[in-house]
Amino acid sequence: ARVLQAKQDLAGKQILITAGGTREAVDPVRFLGNRSSGKMGYALAAVAARRGAKVTLVSTVSLPVPAGVQIVPVETALEMRDAVLSRFNDVDVVIKAAAVADYRPVAPQAQKIKKHDEHLTIELVKNPDILKELGERKRGQLLVGFAAETHEVERFAQEKLQKKNADLLIANDVAQPGVGFGTETNQVTILDRNGGREDLPLMSKTEVAEAICTRIAQFLRN
Ligand code: CTP
Ligand code: CA
């Protein structure tokens, strides 16, 4: 009964969400990764679907898939980029909750790297910035980015909002306890392209997702 009562303020909207940290191959048995659990992205997918959106979740992790959500499994930043760009023209909103690796090994080895010397150097090359590319291509889509910072949160988040041409930027200070990677809770500030800001208290990732979806629904109405 509770599901039936949920407000349907995202009814008919196509929303693409990315979740989890990308894994960049070093060799057949190893990867470079990060601490993203994917929980924020999955909470957003569950809430958006409950509020009536058609949700596609491009994900690097295998958490339980929320009801009504279409899952697209990916592993690397390049795979995530393909999955997102190929669907971009058909969506109303993209939420980039994923922690995309900024760099990948230049030449992943076909065979397992054996240990030899005391030191090992792996050369890395920058990955494409998916959100920035979306910001350059967007034609009416609403773009929602995340920024996980350990210091100067406000300044870096504002810079990302502008540099990536996003409409909403969800900033969190991952140096605080209970915030960000792997936790059940989050404390975020929502910045918007018109200079607005909303400071939310520490709350569950589902509650944060509800607040983000409310801001998205407001933006879509205007
Ligand atoms: N992002 C992306 N593609 C990348 C890197 C980041 O789409 N190659 C997206 C993330 O999904 C997030 C936003 O950009 O929504 C900000 O990511 P973040 O790592 O905080 O910022 P960067 O621009 O990568 O800058 P830095 O890591 O140096 O702070
Ligand atoms: Ca980054």
From TrEMBL:
Molecular-function GO terms, alphabetical: FMN binding; metal ion binding; phosphopantothenate--cysteine ligase activity; phosphopantothenoylcysteine decarboxylase activity
Cofactor stoichiometry and binding remark: Binds 1 FMN per subunit.
Gene: coaBC
BP GO terms, sorted: coenzyme A biosynthetic process; pantothenate catabolic process
DNA/pantothenate metabolism flavoprotein C-terminal domain segment(s): 10-218
Entry binding sites for CTP: 102, 112, 128-131, 146, 160, 164
Official protein name in the record: Coenzyme A biosynthesis bifunctional protein CoaBC
Keywords: Decarboxylase, Flavoprotein, FMN, Ligase, Lyase, Magnesium, Metal-binding, Multifunctional enzyme
UniProt cofactor(s): Mg(2+); FMN
Cellular-component GO terms for this entry: phosphopantothenoylcysteine decarboxylase complex
Shown residues within the full chain: 181 to 402 of 402
Its biological purpose: Catalyzes two sequential steps in the biosynthesis of coenzyme A. In the first step cysteine is conjugated to 4'-phosphopantothenate to form 4-phosphopantothenoylcysteine. In the second step the latter compound is decarboxylated to form 4'-phosphopantotheine. Catalyzes two steps in the biosynthesis of coenzyme A. In the first step cysteine is conjugated to 4'-phosphopantothenate to form 4-phosphopantothenoylcysteine, in the latter compound is decarboxylated to form 4'-phosphopantotheine.
Membership in a protein family: In the N-terminal section; belongs to the HFCD (homo-oligomeric flavin containing Cys decarboxylase) superfamily.
Entry's EC annotation: 4.1.1.36, 6.3.2.5
Pathways involved: Cofactor biosynthesis; coenzyme A biosynthesis; CoA from (R)-pantothenate: step 2/5; Cofactor biosynthesis; coenzyme A biosynthesis; CoA from (R)-pantothenate: step 3/5
Catalysed reactions, semicolon-separated: N-[(R)-4-phosphopantothenoyl]-L-cysteine + H(+) = (R)-4'-phosphopantetheine + CO2; (R)-4'-phosphopantothenate + L-cysteine + CTP = N-[(R)-4-phosphopantothenoyl]-L-cysteine + CMP + diphosphate + H(+)
